[in-house]
Design a protein that fits this description.
The protein is α/β, with parallel strands linked by helices. The chain is about 40% helix and about 25% strand. The chain has helices at about 35-45, 65-80, 90-100, 100-105, 110-120; strands at about 10-15, 20-25, 50-55, 80-85, 105-110. It has a 5-stranded mixed β-sheet. InterPro entries: Anti-sigma_ant (IPR003658), STAS_dom (IPR002645), STAS_dom_sf (IPR036513).
Length: about 130
Amino acid sequence: MPIAQNPLSVEVTLPREDVALLTVEGYLDVDTATEFQHHLANQLHHGRRHFLLDLSAVPFMDSSGMNIILRVYQEARELPGSVHIISPTSAVRRILDLTGVSITVPVSGSVDEALERVDRLPQAPEEDPGS
């Protein structure tokens, strides 16, 4: 009998107009990665440039989840924008560290810490209201 996995839950909130906070709950693996990708693509489509990924309720993530995070990181950098991982579980943090993803994508302990990092990023020239 197959083991039933927890379905993936992704809650999207907008702390700011250009910032999407995605709170992910459940296994982020080959079976659920496409759903996660759809949420990220939808936020990109709606003009979000900064992505805060709360992984505090993700007990397991495989290469499918990591690939999506790296893909959105690349897309966000071209905007320019950013991706921040928030409070990964110890198992997920271990995977991020072993694969080097945590060197590329900043890891923050809280949403506020991630938003402070977003505030320290250089702003895109087209956002200057004085032009």
